[in-house]
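Protein modeling request. Please complete all fields; requests missing the sequence field cannot be processed.
Requester role: graduate student
Desired output: 3D structure, token encoding
Chains: 1
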Amino acid sequence: MKKQKMWILAVLTLALTVGPLAVQLYGGQDEVKDKKQTVSGSNASQHVSLEDALPAFSTTLVKYGAFGQDVYELQGRLKHLGFYNGKIDSQYGPKTLKSVKWFQWKFGMKADGVVGAKTKLKLYNATKNWRPTEPSNNKTAASGEGKKTNTGKTKSTAKLSSGNAMGLSENDLKIMANAVYGEARGEPFEGQVAVAAVILNRVKSPNFPKTPSGVIFQPGAFTAVADGQIYLEPNEQARKAVQQALSGWDPSGGCIYYFNPVTATSKWIWSRPQVKTIGEHIFCM
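Delivered output (285 residues):
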């Protein structure tokens, strides 16, 4: 009887000792698992995809000394946020470098001035309402730099088909730039994009011709056709306005008409529902 009591006491002692140890061991395994999940989650949160920032930026790394469309976007968006007060010239110089480092530091990133996927995505997400307000001045032909001909005149090499999701011909895009220049040169850049957007909105409408050329040369549709200004050589700003409209920016808000209230002679145009005024033009439906 005495031996039986001793055995029971030994078993109870062993249970009290091993039980917490087992719990501790299994608890430790769960803790390790939790830590692994936390690390995995941290890595997932640090994974940066540039796809969300396209087509605003390309996938190219942008550093000091760079130039082109990415730098134009970079300067414009930094200026929109108040980090950059220099000229938007598409040149990554000292002022741009200082602004990029300031932005990176402010948003908790490594302030090295190198604009990679993480910086581009942060900047894009912080400036989704930004729109270009002045023409790009890039060095590359694909970005719109003119080339000197042997006559001394500047010939444009801008790729107007860039971002052309409507399958329009080069001739259609060229005549659109002519129309924007003839109708809206001297207007704010936003207003020039709006004129290009109106042309595209008419192409999409069942009530108008199905091509930009058809829309523009429809009798009585555009003043620039009537007075011959449609044949003036468009500048880079007009071409850029067409590019922006092709990329989906429509400052007019879907309008299919616009007019200058100072020079308009048609009483009918005043009857159209007015949406907004940009520069000297009233845009309406």
